[in-house]
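Late entry, written up from scratch paper. The run itself happened at the end of the previous shift, but nothing got recorded in the book at the time, so transcribing now.
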Amino acid sequence: MAKQQSKPAKAARSEEYDSKAVLSVLNRILEMELAGIVRYTHYSLMVFGYNRIPIVSWLRAQATEGMAHAQQAGEWITHLGGHPSLAIGPLLETHDHDIGNILRESLEHELETLELYRELLRLTADRAVMLEEYARGMILSEEMHCGEVDKMLRKPGDTKSVQG
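Output as recorded:
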């Protein structure tokens, strides 16, 4: 008697994600990351005073990190069959280049970008493992960055967050 081969059990399929909504969020992320590159580069040119060198170095590192984040978002867009946006997110020019104001503007921008990554996670959680893991990793990165900016905005010795 021939042994009957059983078909492998179908894995439980997760709910499909809304690819149009995901691509829209990814394009908004791309635009915000590109805006961050411009912001941080501009800020780095406008720093003066005794602490210029380490602050400029930090700002330029943020611009470089923004480029990596923009490229990742663009790669995800094309991986999913979308077309990366050529637009750029909002650019704020207050003409007030006090380091504290630069950092507050930076924090505001980072929090807006963080919210886009959280939106991506909401759209993909339990639906698309790769995108969910990407979103989680970026949320971690952005939250750490926001925490660093928050610490930079505190007065020396002050342990309380400026975000409330």
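Residues 8-14 have pLDDT under 50 and may be disordered.
(Scratch paper discarded after transcription.)
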